[in-house]
Structures are given as C-alpha cells and as structure tokens.
C-alpha cells in the first residue's frame, strides 16, 4: 500500500469527524479503476458494505483482489471512481477519520520508542503536559513499557510493529485500519500480536478493518469476515463470527472446534472465490 501522505495524516487526529455514529463505515456502489484506455484496470467493485461501529471486520482474499484498494478508499487516501464511501457519516479524511497501520512500520528510526509515540500524540494535538501520561498508557497497552528509551533500530520487528499500533492508537480515532500488519513477522510473534490486538479491541468501541491473506488470522481476529472474489474484488461471502470475545484464553480459542470450523470455512471460501 502506498501513499504520499504525511505522518500526521497517517497517524490520524483526534475526533471521528462526520455527522454519523463515530466509526461506522458505508460503501455504496463502490468501484475503483486505475489507468485509462487499453491499460485500464478495474481493481474493485461494485461493492456495497455497511460496517456498524465497534465491529472487527477482516477483509480476506487472494493476492491482487483489491483488499488494500478498499482500505485506501476507507482511509480516504483515494476517492472511488464510482460510488460513495462514508466514514462516521461523512467523507473519509486521511488523518482525521482513521488511524492506519501498514505492513512495514513507518517509524522514525533515529528516535526512541517513547519519542515516536510523543510525535504521534503531538500530531493528534494532545496538550504537551498530558503526553507523558498518555505515552505511558499506550506503551503499557501494547506491552512496550520496558523499551521506552530504546531507539527503533534497537528493537525487534515485532516490537516495531507494536510501536506502529501504539502510534495509530495515539490519535484515539474511532476507526483503525490495518493492512497486513503482521505479515512480515515470524509465526510466534505474529500470534502474540494477534492476541494482543484482539485483547486491545475488546470493549474499545473502536471499529477495526484488518486486511489479510490468512484464514487463520481472519478467524482468530474477526467479529465478521468478508471474503473477496478475485479482481475486480467483490464480496463473495460475508461471514459473521460467533466465537467468544471474552472469558476464553487465546490458547483455548485456537484449540476449539468452533475456531477450526470457522478457519476451514474461511479457507475454503477464499480458495473458491479466487478460482
Ligand atoms: N495505483 C494503481 N494503479 C494501477 N493498478 C493498481 C493500483 N493499485 C492497485 N492496482 C491493481 O489493483 C488490483 C488490486 O490491488 P490491491 O493492492 O488492492 O490488491 P490486494 O488484494 O491488496 O493485493 P495483495 O494481497 O497482493 O497486497 C491489483 O491488480 C493491482 O495491480
């Protein structure tokens, strides 16, 4: 996913914007095309999708089916060729209506972990005197309080992605968009981050839209899983998850027959939608 936005825009800003319920998403007849003439490509659409606030929506599908395109449209990095995208009842505004986490954490390597969070708080216009407390809360929330003073190049890839999540959370937007944020991590780190993200999302009231190729990841994280067809991406299947969000450990959940069944359903749907 590429954009020329500034860090302030990527990090998001305080307040949801729009006149609807904060965090809700509405896609109406959305199609996205790139190029023109013989080189025109329809990447996505038409797509109609309503996401109520608080949902953890996972977009899953084969490579090139348009997942990142949909996320860019919801972020407001692009406008649709046809149709309308609304977030919190209004036009999506980069840096205002959502926070975004990318596959590669976009951090300032020469700054400390705490310094990166401070910058995000500054972009979010958090008053200076409130920043130390907010920084401590955020680092605690993503399990990084012990590395606050280390520079980014001195911490692991998994820890860097935790910093990226904390930065996106700093703005307290009602919508968090995550584009394959754990894809570059080893399996164990990836599972730990999935568990932490799941825990952080529970009862937050925040809406999450998470893009992945992985049926495992989709089944573990989503309260709802939308499977896309191959390009142009359209909704092949919309699967609500009734896996418990609380009262069960991550290990119990991953070992449960219900999780195995959902993972299998999503895996089969992705395969069928890609053919
Ligand atoms: N700016 C662009 N110009 C031209 N084509 C584009 C552009 N952005 C995306 N596409 C094309 O649109 C299609 C969807 O791309 P997109 O990156 O959204 O898919 P994806 O599902 O996120 O893929 P992956 O899982 O591999 O990241 C692809 O065929 C891609 O080549």
UniProtKB/TrEMBL annotation:
This is Putative ABC transporter ATP-binding protein. Residues 25-255 form the ABC transporter domain. It comes from the Bacteria. One of its GO terms (molecular function) is ATP hydrolysis activity. InterPro entries: AAA+_ATPase (IPR003593), ABC_transporter-like_ATP-bd (IPR003439), ABC_transporter-like_CS (IPR017871), ABC_transporter_ATP-bind (IPR050166), P-loop_NTPase (IPR027417). It holds the Pfam family ABC_tran. Residues 1-23 are annotated as: Disordered. Keywords: ATP-binding, Nucleotide-binding, Transport. It comes from Gordonia soli NBRC 108243. Residues 14-23 have a biased composition (Gly residues).
């Amino acid at each position: 996913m590429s954009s020329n936005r500034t860090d302030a825009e990527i990090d998001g800003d305080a307040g949801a914007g729009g006149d609807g319920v904060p965090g809700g998403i509405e896609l109406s007849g959305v199609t996205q095309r790139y190029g023109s003439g013989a080189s025109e490509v329809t990447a996505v659409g038409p797509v109609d999708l309503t996401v109520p606030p608080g949902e953890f929506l996972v977009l899953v599908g084969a490579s090139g089916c348009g997942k990142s395109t949909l996320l860019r449209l919801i972020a407001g990095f692009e406008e649709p060729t046809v149709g309308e995208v609304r977030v919190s009842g209004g036009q999506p505004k980069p840096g205002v209506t959502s926070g975004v986490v990318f596959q590669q954490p976009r951090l300032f390597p020469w700054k400390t972990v705490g310094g990166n969070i401070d910058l995000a708080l500054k972009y979010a216009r958090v008053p200076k005197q409130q920043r130390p407390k907010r920084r401590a809360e955020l680092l605690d929330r993503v399990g990084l309080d012990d590395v606050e003073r280390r520079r980014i190049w001195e911490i692991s890839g998994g820890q860097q992605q935790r910093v990226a999540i904390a930065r996106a959370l700093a703005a307290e937007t009602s919508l968090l968009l995550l584009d394959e944020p754990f894809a570059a991590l080893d399996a164990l780190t990836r599972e730990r981050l999935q568990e932490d993200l799941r825990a952080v999302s529970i009862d937050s009231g925040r809406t999450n839209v998470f893009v992945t190729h992985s049926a495992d990841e989709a089944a573990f994280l989503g309260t709802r899983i939308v499977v896309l067809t191959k390009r142009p991406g359209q909704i092949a299947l919309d699967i609500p998850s009734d896996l418990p969000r609380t009262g069960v450990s991550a290990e119990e959940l991953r070992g449960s027959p219900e999780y195995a069944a959902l993972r299998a359903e999503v895996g089969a749907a992705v395969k069928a939608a890609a053919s």
